[in-house]
Write a structure and sequence with these properties.
six-stranded parallel beta sheet; three-stranded parallel beta sheet; binds NADPH dihydro-nicotinamide-adenine-dinucleotide phosphate
Length: 306
Amino acid sequence: MPRILDGNRVRDDIKSELKPRVEALAAQGRPPGLAVVLVGHHPASEIYVRNKIKTCHDLGIYSESITPPDSISTAELLAIVLALNARPEIDGILVQLPLPPQVDTKRILMAVTPAKDVDGFHPCNVGALVANLPAPRACTPAGIIELLKRGGIPIAGRRAVVVGRSDIVGKPAAMLLLHEHATVTICHSKTPDLPAVCREADILVAAIGRAAMITRDFIRQGATVIDVGTNYIQDRDLAARIFRNSPEKLASFDRRGSVLVGDVDPIDVVERAGAYTPVPGGVGPLTIAMLMVNTVASAERRSGVC
Ligand code: NDP
């Protein structure tokens, strides 16, 4: 049986390590502060933001959420971001995406001052990532590296294949793996013979957004498989294929009408991989944990601790 890289355990370890750092900052004057801007009503975003605020609360990090209406203009949202940039007790600013269509998302993300950009999306921080300089790193890719390192998976000298080239997952994940001395290939929708490329991977990262697309043909025997995908499926035939040996999970799908699955076939990965991240409970928990790491590190930098 392959080893499961348990994201919940790694998240809890990271939170335990952060607690004394938060307490030290609080003792020195004030706890770290995170502001989350959530525009309008977007049920999935509301859940993510609730979880972020709750995790701040667990750790003793000051947090506030700002919830302007869906009708907000780019200028009005810019004013909110600029005001947060100027507030000394706020160390991290997170603008929850997606934003409504009338808002210029790039302008908003560019307006967050790089020192408080705890998502690591600002071009200055992307440049720092490429140059391997200290700066906030994109949370999900940083979480992937934590899962690998803490799971005892060697990265240096290994072949890593990342499927997906988005700015928030695929590209930064590839760059972080490169900095850890992997030999990295980035694939996308135009990559010919994707299964053959993926089979070269010692470490295969799937960040695609297509339910169970990575099947046994893509996975070299013994490879480490990191499944970033979060796909809520409602198609019963697809659910029946994915849960072909799990009547309980299919029954749960039938009760609820939808289910969360990753980009990797959950049965094939168990047969082929040496280690893998499950969905749920793999990469997902690390995203918020790394947001907390970025917020605490930002507070430490801003208060002169490091
Ligand atoms: P994007 O849609 O931005 O990017 C998807 C990438 O997958 C693109 O580069 C696309 O290629 C590639 N792709 C799509 N179809 C294929 C295909 N058939 N063959 C090869 N490549 C393909 O998604 P994100 O990067 O934002 O997210 C990816 C997944 O990760 C999603 O399921 C998302 O929900 C999840 N996610 C999970 C997080 C977590 O905390 N667990 C956090 C962030 C994302 P091309 O560029 O050519 O179009």
